[in-house]
Design goal:
This protein has 370 residues and is an alpha+beta fold. Helix content is 39%, strand content 17%.
Length: 370
């Protein structure tokens, strides 16, 4: 096994060191599964034995500067809470109904890898973990199935609140990771069936399934099955949230972790107007709804200038003015900023059938006005 991985990470030439290279000690400990933490060999992961230290803040706020100073040409540094936050944001965008914030605790992430090894070797200093990959650990004596192990290389460094001092230490890790200061941890899922692990032919299996699925979809189309039905089969039924309009005219989605969808007063007035018309409205007839639109605007704005209110509503209802289309576009943006279009299209104003009829398709049984 090649132990020179870390020195190759940096393009800068390392100083020679006469410290004898020894094979690191190997331990076996349990591997904890936490959502959002999929390790790759490109990651070099900071871990801190104590929470909320000046060093932790220094690394969190200067990751890009540190990577630049180390002149890294392979791999990247990872501050676990930030990395997980990025993953959770993407997951929450596609599935807002789930409470993703409860999945991962920042303090847990800062000691995730350390918690796996403290039972065999207490680490009291901050350290850098590098995921080396997965290999065969052994065979379950009962099921006679294989289970797998996960390898990390680890090196510790000293606490500091000075960025230059930290960078100097990290540069030296290219030498230390090859010396007796380096420790190799072998993290194992005991009795993990090979059926639970990705198949060695994973890519081929996925490609085969994709091809079979495409063939079946083509057959459905030849049989005349509607595209909406095919799409629903692929995506499944969306889990839609109730929509609550509060007394102070906030728009909340209780089943999406009480998410608030914010809009400017005039945009919100247009939204509440369409929300109160499930049958839809022809834009060319908006002048007939002038009083109602004005009422909604008065409820959502803090303006007291009557002439300004009337001017904005007049622009909305003018068939030669593009104001209403602009407001509908802002409504769509407000929901798409919160979750994907597969869900959002049920909430924003869109065309309904032929012509210029506009409507919100959300089932009004899900809508409540306080």
């Amino acid at each position: 096994m090649n132990w020179n991985f870390f020195s190759k990470l940096f393009k800068r030439k390392q100083h020679t060191d006469n410290t004898p290279t020894t094979k690191p000690t190997i331990y076996k400990v349990g591997l904890k599964d936490i959502a959002g933490c999929n390790f790759t060999t490109e990651q070099y992961i900071f871990q801190f034995p104590k929470p909320d230290t000046p060093l932790e803040a220094l690394i969190r706020d200067n990751l890009d500067k540190i990577e630049h100073a180390l002149d890294m040409d392979r791999g990247y540094l990872v501050y676990m809470p930030s990395r997980a936050s990025e993953i959770l944001e993407k997951q929450a965008y596609n599935n807002p109904a789930k409470d993703w914030d409860a999945e991962v605790n920042a303090a847990d992430l800062n000691t995730l890898l350390l918690d796996m090894v403290t039972s065999v070797d207490v680490i009291t200093k901050p350290c850098l973990f590098h995921y080396r990959g997965k290999g065969l650990a052994g065979t379950d004596p009962i099921s006679e199935e294989n289970y797998f192990e996960n390898y990390f290389n680890v090196a510790t460094f000293e606490e500091t609140d000075d960025l230059d001092s930290l960078i100097k230490q990290l540069k030296r890790l290219g030498i230390r990771m090859q010396s007796s200061d380096s420790t190799m941890f072998q993290l194992v899922k005991p009795q993990l069936s090979v059926a639970q692990e990705p198949s060695p032919d994973y890519d081929a299996d996925v490609e085969k399934l994709l091809n079979e699925t495409k063939e079946n979809i083509d057959k459905l189309r030849l049989l005349g099955v509607d595209e909406l039905i095919i799409k629903s089969l692929c995506l499944g039924e969306p889990k839609l949230s109730r929509l609550l309009v509060t007394k102070d005219r906030r728009i909340l989605l209780p089943d999406y972790n009480n998410m608030e969808v914010k809009m400017t007063p005039l945009v919100k007035a247009v939204y509440l107007f369409f929300l109160s018309h499930p049958e839809g409205v022809l834009l060319k007839n908006l002048q007939d709804y002038y009083p109602e639109l004005r009422k909604w605007y008065v409820e959502t704005t803090d303006r007291v200038d009557i002439s300004s209110i009337d001017k904005n509503i007049a622009a909305l209802t003018d068939p030669l003015n593009n104001s209403i289309n602009e407001k509908c576009a802002r409504i769509k943006e407000a929901f798409l900023s919160k979750f994907n279009d597969y869900l959002a299209k049920h909430y924003y104003v869109d065309s309904k059938g032929r012509g210029s009829l506009k409507a919100i398709t959300l089932d009004r049984k899900l809508v409540t006005f306080e």
